[in-house]
Specification:
Elements (H helix, E strand, L loop, with lengths): L6 H7 L25 H9 L14 H14 L3 E5 L2 H10 L7 E5 L4 H13 L3 E5 L4 H7 L4 E7 L11 H10 L3 E5 L4 H4 L9 E5 L13 E5 L1 H15 L5 H32 L5 E5 L9 H7 L7 E6 L2 H11 L4 E2 L9 E3 L11 H7 L5 E5 L5 H15 L2
Parallel strand pairs: 2-3, 2-4, 4-5, 5-6, 10-11
Antiparallel strand pairs: 1-7, 6-7, 8-9, 9-12, 11-12
Length: 396
């Protein structure tokens, strides 16, 4: 594998390890344990494992290792640890490094489960968490302290699609010695340069664009070798958040086509956002690729001008109109995933963010009429026609 390969080549060939049979498609090593030739070899392996030596599937597995190496190369990190889900990755990245008395600064615009970890779990064990408006650098400056251990944010927030300046926040965080942890799901491994821009740790829900076809759960933490093997691995291998070999194989297959899929989805999402902006049934059309988006200039710099694969539509008439819109759709399915080959429509206020208080939803702009639309691989014209009909139905 060459470090000079671009992302599309890394996504196909990164991390390959072939058996003696020289298979083309990556092998699935569906085993929980491994055999040693001698008792002495078993003893030695428990002291230190080599790159092709494994002990137990909870600690590591050849198929899982291929996925870890490939996604690390794709993201520009030194190493990675694959997890059972995206939330296992968020939890593992944060909990593995934090102790009672530590201070964390986080953007407040977060997925509901991420907010639960920061707001309820970490604080339960004595970690102090300060929440800020992630787009306001002055709030980051005010919140960061000499004892701040970590900062956490979604590079593109769910579901209101705010874009946070990774380079600027990382510079501020590093000035006080804090570790920068970025949930990069909406930015995707295709458009992301988060580590290059200053992030120390990147987490993904592989369930989303990496699989990309709604088949399996998975997550991954990417960072330096010291952080992944010295901090993350000891925590996760003992607490059991490992990715299964079969799911790792699915993620490997997903990475082979991720650039083709995500670029096509982003192109369609842009076309839909531009066509729908200003529609009479909409209060707002939220899409980072639109010139009207508050952080569009940052999108040009941070994501190469790519607005991502998700747009949010704030429908006039609140929840009743939003439900009428959802029920009138014939192509997008109603579900709560994203990054899928199928377009997916979600009502965050009653599903993914329903555990937030009304005050929190109001503060984050998650209105009763807001619909998150994850754009799939369908024809853009078909999607636009279907969405327009559903918008008409929402106002009937």
């Amino acid at each position: 594998m060459s470090e000079s390969w671009n992302k599309r080549t890394q996504a196909v060939h990164g991390g390959i390890r072939r058996s003696q049979y020289k298979e083309v498609s990556e092998a699935i090593y569906l085993t929980q344990g491994f055999v040693y030739d001698t008792a002495e070899q078993a003893e030695a392996r428990f002291i230190e494992t080599g790159p092709d030596e494994f002990i137990y599937a909870r600690y590591g597995n050849p198929t899982v290792s291929m996925f870890e190496q490939r996604i690390a190369a794709l993201e520009g990190g030194e190493d990675a640890f694959a997890t059972a889900s995206g939330m296992a990755a968020v939890n593992g990245a944060l909990v593995s490094m934090l102790n009672a008395g530590d201070h964390v600064v986080s953007a407040k615009a977060l997925f509901g489960s991420c907010l639960y970890i920061l707001e309820s779990i970490l604080t339960r064990f004595g970690v102090e968490v300060t929440f800020v408006d992630g787009t306001d650098l002055e709030q980051w400056k005010a919140a960061l302290r000499p004892d701040t251990k970590a900062v956490f944010f979604e590079s593109m927030s769910n579901p209101t699609l705010e874009v946070i300046d990774i380079a600027a926040v990382s510079e501020l965080a590093h000035a006080v010695g804090a570790i920068v942890v970025v949930d990069n799901v909406f930015s995707t491994p295709v458009f992301s340069r988060a580590i290059e821009q200053g992030a120390d740790v990147v987490v993904y829900s592989a369930t989303k664009h990496i699989d990309g076809q709604g088949r399996a759960l998975g997550g991954v933490i990417i960072g330096t070798k010291d952080f992944i093997r010295g901090t993350v691995e000891p925590y996760l291998k003992h607490t059991g958040g490992a990715l299964s070999p079969f799911n790792a194989w699915i993620m490997l297959k997903g990475l082979e086509t991720i650039a083709l899929r995500v670029n096509a989805q982003a192109e369609t999402a842009t076309a839909l956002a531009e066509a729908l902006e200003g529609h009479p049934a909409l209060e707002r059309t939220l899409f980072p690729g639109l010139k009207s988006h508050a952080q569009n200039a940052l999108v040009q710099e941070q994501l190469g001008g790519k607005g991502g694969t998700v747009l949010s539509l704030d429908i006039k008439g609140g929840k009743e109109a939003a439900f009428a819109f959802l029920n009138a759709l014939t192509i997008p399915v109603i579900s709560n995933n994203l990054g899928d080959a199928k377009s997916i429509a979600t009502h965050p206020a009653t599903t993914t963010h329903q555990r937030l208080s009304q005050e929190q939803r109001d503060e984050l702009g998650i209105t009763p009429g807001l619909i998150r639309l994850s754009v799939g691989l369908e024809d853009a014209g078909d999607l636009l026609e279907d969405i327009k009909k559903a918008l008409d139905a929402s106002q009937a």
